[in-house]
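Sequence in, structure out.
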Amino acid sequence: MGMSQVYGPADETESLATIDRALELGVTFLDTADVYGLGHNEELVGRAIAGRRDGVVLATKFGIVRRADDNNFRAINGRPDYVRGACDASLQRLGVDHIDLYYQHRADPNVPIEETVGAMAELVAAGKVRHLGLSEAAGDTIRRAHAVHPISALQSEWSLWSRDIEEDALPAARELGVGIVPYSPLGRGMLTGQIRSADDLSRGDFRRGTPRFDGENFSRNLEVVERVRTIATEKGVTPGQLALAWAQAQGDDVVPIPGTKRRTYLEENVAALDVQLNPDDLAELEAVASTNAVAGSRTADMTWVAGTTPAQTASN
């Protein structure tokens, strides 16, 4: 996502080089979405994997609707006809004949999950999609979806910085054998220890408008990051590597997807695989980054998700 939107200016040359280096290092799971850069990111990933499709597990998403002519327009669409059209468009942008893992990006409150997943199941039957996933879905939604067609993965925010998933969605996923794909496992960059103030974020960076990066919340959260940094220093690793090692240590069913735009940070992230955490390490991290340690909600206003259709959102 960060290669195409919200985390400041894009650098396509470095982005392609970063994906290329990831494949060299044995990173084979690439995650994108049709809404990232309004299709730009899927096209970018498609160019990056051209000629080596078989060596990649490719995931993309549908369901969040935005418009190029109105940056404030946002809606959710889970209607079956939209699902089918969105998949065909993603296949074309990616330049592939199938998607390995196809997620519903957010559940549509106006369309029963059974209808949306039913349409997704048709894509599997047609050979366009191999496996189905959900993103940011609640436990009941996961169970209802899984009853229609097996759900292979749940992608939700999960890190030392964000523990919401542990209350409801994680138990449901594990009950059904659904794999967990934590996004933002570096706490939207905060857990790297590189962000010391809001001024470190570029003007177009979306984090400037989120509660955890604002005012007193930011100051309190910086204290949590400093405690994580201290533990990392004691282990001889970077704070980001420690955060990724924590995510990896949550179970064999967990595959975190740290986003990065640069090869330097990519290589640091991959090196986190060599970091081993013992029970004492995990207990110490739990003590400094418990479920209520971080101040502020993890996202800005999301009321646009609930109870609106694209048409209603456009008219508001």
